[in-house]
Write a structure and sequence with these properties.
mainly beta, SH3 type barrels, five-stranded antiparallel sheet, 16 strands, globular, disordered N terminus
């Protein structure tokens, strides 16, 4: 058995870099894209966005019915971020960082977003010079139809249009939704 000597260990914002001696040793470089963590139950990315499936969803202190209810979410389609998994339970938080544990049956993979900026224009095309179909107030929940690198197509109260991602909570800046 051969022992390897660690020559260099550096932590950076891009990941972990290791340089080791030995012909068969792997070397991780800072250029390697860090792999997004995955849930141990679903093997889906953590964190990820989902939405409230029902008109009422209990948020508990822990992942079981024995735990106390701390919150009740009451807006169907409300986007939530899953930050943990345990059995049939998902640890979620809302845009204010408030959350707890919810049973997975109360959640949907349908994507929704909350309008963050008051009077957000909903354009007819992904172009700020196009016609404005509507102005959405802060707090409105809209269904995400698709998102590119900059623009998202939404439906809110039967009105469709495009807006830029910084106006939304429920989609990551680098995320593409088909």
């Amino acid at each position: 058995m051969r022992f390897f000597t660690v020559l260099f260990l550096a932590l950076s914002g891009f990941g972990l870099s290791l340089a080791v001696s030995g012909a068969m040793s792997p070397v991780m470089s800072a250029e390697a894209a860090p792999e997004q963590p995955r849930g141990k139950v679903t093997n889906l990315p953590i964190p990820r966005f989902v939405s409230l499936k029902t008109s009422e969803g209990n948020v508990r202190r822990g992942p079981s019915l024995r735990h106390r209810i701390d919150w009740v979410f009451e807006r169907p389609g409300m986007p939530l971020e899953i930050v943990g998994e345990f059995g049939h339970w998902r640890q979620v938080r809302d845009r204010d960082g408030v959350g707890g544990w919810m049973h997975y049956s109360l959640l949907s993979g349908a994507r929704h977003a909350i309008i963050e900026t008051d009077l957000t224009p909903l354009f007819s095309r992904a172009d700020e010079t196009s016609q404005v179909n509507a102005y959405l107030e802060a707090g409105v929940i809209a269904r995400i139809e698709k998102c590119g690198p900059v623009w998202c197509r939404l439906t809110a109260d039967g009105i469709r249009g495009w807006t830029v991602k910084p106006n939304l909570w429920g989609v990551r800046p680098d995320e593409v939704v088909d």
